[in-house]
Amino acid sequence: MKNYLSSSQMTLRMFAADLLVLSSILSAAWCLSVLNVSVPKTLNSTSGSCLLIPCLFNISKEKQNILDSSPEVTWRRGSLWSLYDTDGFTIAHRQKEPVMEVVGDLRKKNCTSVMRNLTSLHSDRYYFRIQAVNFSVTGTTAVHINVSESVAEPNVTVPVLREGEEVNLTCTVPAPCPSHPPNVTWAPALGGEVTQRTHLNADGTQSVSAILNFVPSVHHHELKVNCVSVLPLHREDRPLLSHKVVILNVEYPPKETWISLTGLVWLGDNVTLTCQSKANPPAVHRWFMKRAGVEEELSISRVLSFTAAHENTGEYICEAQNLYGAMNSTNLQITVLGQSVLETIEFLHCYTSVFLNHFGTSLESEHFFRKFRSLNN
Ligand SMILES: *[C@@H]1O[C@H](CO)[C@@H](O)[C@H](O)[C@H]1NC(C)=O
Ligand SMILES: *[C@@H]1O[C@H](CO)[C@@H](O)[C@H](O)[C@H]1NC(C)=O
Ligand SMILES: *[C@@H]1O[C@H](CO)[C@@H](O)[C@H](O)[C@H]1NC(C)=O
Ligand SMILES: *[C@@H]1O[C@H](CO)[C@@H](O)[C@H](O)[C@H]1NC(C)=O
Ligand SMILES: *[C@@H]1O[C@H](CO)[C@@H](O)[C@H](O)[C@H]1NC(C)=O
Ligand SMILES: *[C@@H]1O[C@H](CO)[C@@H](O)[C@H](O)[C@H]1NC(C)=O
Ligand SMILES: *[C@@H]1O[C@H](CO)[C@@H](O)[C@H](O)[C@H]1NC(C)=O
Ligand SMILES: *[C@@H]1O[C@H](CO)[C@@H](O)[C@H](O)[C@H]1NC(C)=O
Ligand SMILES: *[C@@H]1O[C@H](CO)[C@@H](O)[C@H](O)[C@H]1NC(C)=O
Ligand SMILES: *[C@@H]1O[C@H](CO)[C@@H](O)[C@H](O)[C@H]1NC(C)=O
Ligand SMILES: *[C@@H]1O[C@H](CO)[C@@H](O)[C@H](O)[C@H]1NC(C)=O
Ligand SMILES: *[C@@H]1O[C@H](CO)[C@@H](O)[C@H](O)[C@H]1NC(C)=O
């Protein structure tokens, strides 16, 4: 019972202390506004790498002179509640703290800092603090630092790829530690050129892009291309890899158009003609027919079906078209055989006599040619 009381008393005392801290922070934030700090809300980095914290600040005019007295500038970690509770930190705790170095010019209100030797244990909220001989102040805006064991997947942007039109594929990877940036590449390079570029983002962080400049061809269609990011780390000899695969979709006009026909065509057959084409995006197909020198458009469809009749004899053409162009198949001659029993016999008789005239005796041939000449004269 006694134990319980004392522990609850302690909790109360701690709560009172927290309230005191909170009120002092609130007064600092809303009444005095001695120090305003501008940092990104969250920053990500990787265990074994470093982290640049872009940071700018304003300090009230009355306190500005402390910047000339080379004050101690640090970052305090923790929640707002435990912010000032740093005396509780043991030496062991301190050794586990990240190495923080202010690299910005304080007189230019630049508190940009680098955090080194990062481990995931360093994930926390951090507050910027200026400490002079007789004055110290802590910013009330925290940067939430997230140190993970992995790296984010690269961000790849692929525009519409058209055959023969030069394009850029862009792969972007954050570079939280600009002194050890990732090496970003494209593989394969598709006969193009890869250039690397470093960007300064609006929030002061940096990123590295690999730009692949190439001219897409039909052979690149459905090809896999890999963007690979290699991040050097301090903690190990082995760098950390991340990658993203993209499957290319190259658009092109119809390349090949042909008609596939199933079976022979006899009178009364059900005929199916299919228009085949190689095109991206897929083509729209149109059918044409030429008969006795007259051309007509039959339908807009990939498949043409009919029950064979005399008037279906003619030349068939299919056209494949997409937004990039059109291409016609070669003409396909369809002759509907066996119009009637009599016609068939006539056809076979004619066929037989021509055969005999070609391959029969020379006498018969001479007879045929004489007859042929007399007919022509
Ligand atoms: C940090 O990483 C998380 C998860 O990967 C992501 O959602 C977030 O946008 C990242 N933040 C920044 C500032 O890059
Ligand atoms: C500092 O003051 C300038 C001018 O008033 C303002 O533009 C800037 O946003 C302020 N920066 C911060 C961190 O408060
Ligand atoms: C900090 O920001 C507050 C609110 O925007 C403003 O009233 C105050 O003057 C700023 N302080 C400094 C030192 O810039
Ligand atoms: C702040 O300092 C860093 C490190 O020197 C520098 O890269 C950055 O450009 C500075 N920012 C501004 C706004 O001057
Ligand atoms: C950072 O880590 C490396 C490798 O573990 C070590 O050699 C170096 O002394 C560390 N730097 C600091 C400042 O602790
Ligand atoms: C201590 O504070 C006073 C009043 O703000 C100031 O005049 C003096 O320069 C400060 N001393 C140092 C060493 O910064
Ligand atoms: C921190 O990073 C991890 C891994 O990238 C992610 O899952 C998590 O959402 C991140 N947290 C924040 C607050 O960005
Ligand atoms: C990837 O980059 C594009 C273009 O820069 C951007 O609009 C998009 O938000 C980015 N996506 C991620 C997950 O960062
Ligand atoms: C590709 O990037 C290069 C270099 O940045 C630029 O000169 C070119 O105009 C870009 N091409 C296209 C099609 O965007
Ligand atoms: C980046 O990677 C490419 C391909 O692996 C390599 O040729 C190049 O030397 C690397 N660049 C750096 C700076 O490591
Ligand atoms: C042709 O198709 C029609 C309608 O689908 C069907 O009635 C007929 O039996 C078919 N003819 C042949 C020879 O398959
Ligand atoms: C395909 O053939 C039809 C019929 O002859 C014609 O009208 C059309 O213009 C041709 N299309 C192409 C792309 O040659």
- Contiguous low-pLDDT stretches (5 residues minimum) are 1-21, 27-31, 350-377
CATH topology of the largest domain, which one? Immunoglobulin-like
| Total helical segments | 4
CATH class of the largest domain: Mainly Beta
| Beta fraction | 35-45%
The CATH superfamily of the largest domain is identified as Immunoglobulins
Number of strands: 26
Which secondary-structure class do the elements indicate?
A: alpha+beta
Total number of distinct structural domains: 4
Bound molecules: 2-acetamido-2-deoxy-beta-D-glucopyranose
- Fraction of residues in helix: 10-25%
CATH architecture assignment name of the largest domain: Sandwich
| Overall pLDDT score | 81
Radius of gyration: 41 Å
H/E series, N to C? HEEEEEHEEEEEEEEEEEEEEEEEEEEEHH
What is the 3D form? rod-shaped
Pfam families: Ig_2
Domain Ig-like: 154-186, 254-335
Protein name: Ig-like domain-containing protein
InterPro entries: Ig-like_dom, Ig-like_dom_sf, Ig-like_fold, Ig_sub
